[in-house]
Amino acid sequence: xxxxxxxxxxxxxxxxxxxxxxxxxxxxxxxxxxxxxxxxxxxxxxxxxxxxxxxxxxxxxxxxxxxxxxxxxxxxxxxxxxxxxxxxxxxxxxxxxxxxxxxxxxxxxxxxxxxxxxxxxxxxxxxxxxxxxxxxxxxxxxxxxxxxxxxxxxxxxxxx
Length: 160
Ligand code: HEC
Prior knowledge:
Layout: H1 3-23, H2 32-44, H3 47-51, E1 74-77, E2 80-82, H4 87-90, H5 96-105, H6 114-119, H7 122-135, E3 156-158
Parallel strand pairs: 1-3
Antiparallel strand pairs: 1-2
Bound molecules: heme C.
Heme C (HEC) is lined by residues 45-47, 49-51, 75, 82-85, 87, 90, 106, 108-109, 111-113, 116, 128, 145.
């Protein structure tokens, strides 16, 4: 076999190997029932209201591929200024089981209703995760937390 051809086969072989490594962590394809449940939950449990830009202003008429990409609008109060995180990126760093564990104990600042995640059933948490991973990564990270007393750069809603 000519050397060039050998090299090419070798390259294809290694490319296939590394692609497999990269995708080893990819979630299993979600079933339709979980996806539908996930859609229902992020709509009615308020996740879209804060984590999807313009969701309330557009009366919920935001295409699904833009859902949960985080928001530039700050929520300012005695806790500082918080931003609804980009959940499409956030979930990429967690396995489904890690998410279920985290959601049962995580605490964050207002106005994130973190305590409602503690009350969600494991099945519902899994459905939300499956939907978000199915939608895939999108958008940019939301701005970082600004401590109390510091002026945020972008727009914010002020709590008394
Ligand atoms: C009223 C607005 C609001 C609603 C409703 C809301 N979030 Fe949030 N969420 C936020 C804000 C603001 C933050 C950032 C909080 C911070 O910086 O401490 C956040 C943070 C988060 C985080 C990151 C928590 C951490 O500290 O790791 C997750 C995960 C999350 N939200 C999921 C959800 C899900 C799932 C729903 C729907 C069940 C939801 N949120 C509903 C505003 C909201």
